[in-house]
Amino acid sequence: MNPRSLIALAGLTLLATACGGSDKKSPTEPGGENDNSSYSASISGGYTKSLTGTSAFASDNSQTEVGFALALGTEEGNNNAIVIWRRQSGVLAAGTYQFADYSNIEDPADVPANELVGITVFDLTQESAVLCVSTSGTLTITQSSANRLKGNVSMAASCLDSSGAEKTINVTGTFDAVGGTVVIPNG
Q1: How many CA atoms within 13 Å lie on the side-chain side of 45?
Q2: Cα separation, 24 vs 41, whole angstroms
Q3: Other C-beta atoms within 10 Å of 4: how many?
Q4: Per residue in 43-58, pLDDT tens?
Q5: pTM for the whole thing?
C-alpha cells in the first residue's frame, strides 16, 4: 500500500466518522434523539475484532473525490470505523455493489467513479493502530431512501498497522444508517 494514499485515507476516515458534526442535531441526524442507527461487524483473519455503533451516509455532488460515503462508527471519540465511499454522487439504490481493489492505487482518481472503496480503521488512539483498504467483496443494500440505508457488507481488505506489518482481513456485518452530513476537506 502506498503510504501517501494511506495518510490521505486516514484523514478521510476520521472526517467521515464525524458525520453530523454540528452541536445541534435534528432528531433523525446521526447522534440526534431519534437516530436509531446501528451497525455490527466482525473482523477475522490477520486481526480479530467485533465492532458496533451508529452509522450514517451522505451524498455530495460538489466534491469530485467523494460523492457518496457510508460511515459505520460515527460516535464522537470512536477509535474504530468502517467507511465505504465512491466518487459518484447519489444515494445507493437497493442492490449489490462490488468493492474496488484499492490496495495498489496511487491516486483516488484512478478508481472508477461508480466503484466502491472500503476503509476499515481500528485502535486509532493506540500504538497498534490499523488501517485497511478493500481488495474485493460486496455491499448489499436491502432498503434505500434519502433518510435511511439498510444492508450488509462482506469485504476482504489489505491492512497496514503502525509498526508496518501487513495482514489481510475479512469484514462482515450489517448496518441501518441514517442520512447525515459527511465533511470532506478541499485539497
Answers
A1: 16
A2: 29
A3: 10
A4: 999 999 999 988 889 8
A5: 0.80
